[in-house]
What we know:
Layout: H1 18-42, H2 44-47, H3 51-73, H4 78-87, H5 93-96, H6 99-116, H7 124-173, H8 177-186
Helix pairs in contact: 1-3, 1-6, 3-4, 3-7, 4-7, 6-7, 7-8
Amino acid sequence: xxxxxxxxxxxxxHGLSAxxxxxxxxxxxxxxxxxxxxxxxxxxxxxxxxADQRASVLLITQAGAAGFVDWLRDxxxxxxxxxxxxxxxxxxxxxxxxxxxAVGMVRLAIEVFEEQLPDFAANEAExxxxxxxxxxxxxxxxxxxxxxxxxxxxxRGAWDARLEALVVDGIVRGDAEESxxxxxxxxxxxxxAAATVLVGNPPSD
Length: 205
């Protein structure tokens, strides 16, 4: 042995150095905040959301930004990482924001990342890797959003069917009017609209 040592090779992920990944990790919060700022400027409906709902969207965006760094480290875990942000979101989110609006937010966030990510690249190869990575990750996020909304719609449909049955049952049993109206309102029914109730025996086969 000649006493010389071979420099330890630093592993790279998606063509990115460990140093670049650390810089991205530290900046994930500011990237998420920048995305929210753009949404507030360019999406009129988003600016009208109450503060608590915008805060929920910010938390999801922050989780998505952090997930992007994890995805760059190990893309095999991409599906799990990208769905976690939506799985942890408030159940009411799909009532505040439609799927179309959610996809619009994802698109704006991707634009912000595309603009700012090149600043973290050490060279042209890393720049290309970051742009390709955010586009691929954006697709994962969009699919995760669609799956989350589909699950919420399925659960909401089952709950609405249960409420409808309770309303009908309440009418038949003569429950207090306030109870029936409360359940009807939860279904989105107009309490001032006229309604017709038919009572009878089902036809025999």
